[in-house]
Amino acid sequence: MNYKMVAKTFFGFEDLLVEELETLGAQNVEKGNRMVSFYGDKGFMYKANLCLRTALKILKPIEGKRVQTPESLYKFAQSIDWNEYLEVKDTFAVYATVSSDLFNHSKYVALKVKDAIVDQFRDKTGERPSVDTERPDLIISVHIGGDMCTISLDSSGASLHHRGYRSATNIAPINEVLAAGLIMLSGWNKHTDFLDPMCGSGTLLIEAAMIANNIPCNINRKEFAFEKWLDWDMDLYERIEDSVLKKVTESPAKLWGYDKAPSAVRKAKDNIKNANMEEFISIQEENFFYTEKQDSEKALHMVFNPPYGERIAINMPEFYGEIGDTLKKSYPATDAWFITSDLEAIKHVGLRPSRKIKLFNGKLESRLLQYKMYSGSKRTKFNKN
Asked: What is the pLDDT of residue 171?
């Protein structure tokens, strides 16, 4: 049986997520703001959690209704038969997001829904399920926009950026979903060699290797919330897992990364090992600014996340000037992309970006920038055509 689901994502990734969902086989896909709705069955819900690179959560809405007061919210939550989703011995947690003039406190909204659920069980059985915010059996998501309230089950649990491979991080690690989205936005063809010249804990390289070889992004994840649902079907999940693993391919692209910090190199290697990506990725201890392209004529795709100055103290004008100089002098025939939230520092790169894409890194407004470095001069490139 098909039902509606909602995949949440970052600002600017909605079109990527639409494409992912349609490729995966979702029905009635509709783009929203930081979310995409779609229809599928239980097996598709399992597959979406396992495979969607740009999704943060997969929610299963169960009821929606207009509410205008705390009392009407309570009555709405009580009208749902919670026995379908929860046993009295189980634990649960309620989380709310609110964008409304009628309700302005998400924790109060979550508390009213929690009370409604507990009271329903107590009235029917004399007992009540317990709240557990650490490892609940059921996670309930409440969203109020204006006077419209939607109550959903959270099928993912911890955000889907928790892939399960990153045991070691550096000072400012990039979110795994953000990393995957940057690579996809950059239009990498999966065949051209790929370099992350400031690789930190290796996240961009691991995501790139999984994209290139069509490996499900959450294959290393420890658990999903749906594994504790009353209708959990392990046999179905294992069939879904087997079917997506049969679609793994082998990319000819060579992937490697540099970092000048020995500690970062060690962490990157640990994470690559955790992700079972050692055969695809190599890491070298190098300062990007002292490197040269290994083959000046061969096309190279580069995606990286340079320090922002938010959590790592650097001289931003000098640092970004060196990025531009290194690309100009040492990396011909390279399609270089990087993300930054320091919009002033962009001016110091000394190159005109081919593209600027507005994104958010956490709460920081950022730009994903493309610099196309030609073989020889740009003029020579165009004269040849």
From this structure: 60
Q: Which residue, chain included where needed, has tokens 């009407």? A: 72
CA angle 281/282/285 to nearest 5° reads 145
Count of Cβ atoms closer than 10 Å to residue 324 Cβ: 16
Location of structure tokens 């994104």? 359
Q: How far is Cα 321 from Cα 349, in angstroms, rounded to an integer? A: 5
What is the helix (H) or strand (E) element at residue 325, kind and residue range? helix 316-330
In the chain, the amino acid numbered 136 is P
> CA-based angle 268:269:273, to the nearest 5?
115
Residue 289, token pair as written in the block: 């600014």
Which sign, positive or negative, has the C-alpha torsion 202, 207, 213, 215? positive
pTM: 0.93
Residues in CB range of 139: below 8 A, 6 or more apart: 92, 93, 95, 153, 154, 157, 225
* pLDDT score at 379: 40
- 3-state SS, residue 259: strand
Contact call for residues 60 and 155 (beta carbons, < 8 A): yes
Q: What pLDDT score does 167 carry?
A: 78
Question: What is the CATH classification number for the domain harbouring 274?
Answer: 3.40.50.150
Q: How far apart are CA 264 and CA 272, in angstroms?
A: 12
Q: What would the two tokens of residue 47 be?
A: 């597959």
- The predicted structure's pLDDT at residue 309: 55
DSSP-assigned letter for residue 3 = E
Name residue 304's amino acid: F
What does residue 373 show for φ and ψ, rounded to 5 degrees? -100, 120
- CATH no. for residue 19? 3.30.2130.30
Scanning 25-172, the segments in alpha helix (DSSP H) are 42-51, 70-79, 106-125
User: 119, 154, 189: which is the final residue of a domain?
Assistant: 154
Question: Domain residues for 27?
Answer: 3-154
Q: Walk along the chain (385 residues) in steps of 10 and give the mean pLDDT of each run.
A: 97 98 98 97 98 98 96 97 97 96 94 98 96 96 96 97 82 87 98 97 97 97 97 98 96 97 94 95 97 93 84 80 97 97 93 96 93 71 38
Q: 184 and 139 in one domain?
A: no
The sign of the dihedral angle between the CA atoms of 227, 229, 234, 236 is negative
